[in-house]
Amino acid sequence: MNSPLIKIDDKHLPLYRIVWVSDVPHFCGEDDCLHEGDYEVRLDIDDSIWANREDRDHVVAALGQWFGDPTSEDDRPEWT
Ligand SMILES: [Zn+2]
Predict the structure, then answer these.
(1) Is 50 exceeded by the pLDDT of residue 11?
(2) Ligand 1 centre distance from Cα of residue 70 (Å)
(3) Do the beta carbons of residue 5 and residue 17 sit within 8 Å?
(4) What is the pLDDT of residues 33-49, one digit of tens each?
(5) For residues 19 and 43, is the Cβ–Cβ distance under 8 A?
(6) Whether the Cβ atoms of residue 35 and residue 44 lie closer than 8 Å to each other
(7) How remote is the CA of residue 79 from the centroid of ligand 1, in Å?
(8) What's the gap in Å between 69 CA and the centre of ligand 1?
(9) How far is the CA of 32 from the centre of ligand 1 (A)?
């Protein structure tokens, strides 16, 4: 995948807008929570979108590719 755009839910967004991606499913205990079990994808403005696990994994893989990271998760770049 060479495009810097990624589709999450029904939205296409550029990878450079993503600040972080949750490693664990959301849980806040609220009865009316709409995102329990979803994975939060934080955007650079004060906003987030929500992904299911499959989309989350896709986002993480795409970000890794975009940063030129090797496929191995154990070989993450150092953020000095
Ligand atoms: Zn919640």
Answers:
(1) yes
(2) 33
(3) no
(4) 999 999 999 988 878 88
(5) yes
(6) no
(7) 30
(8) 32
(9) 8
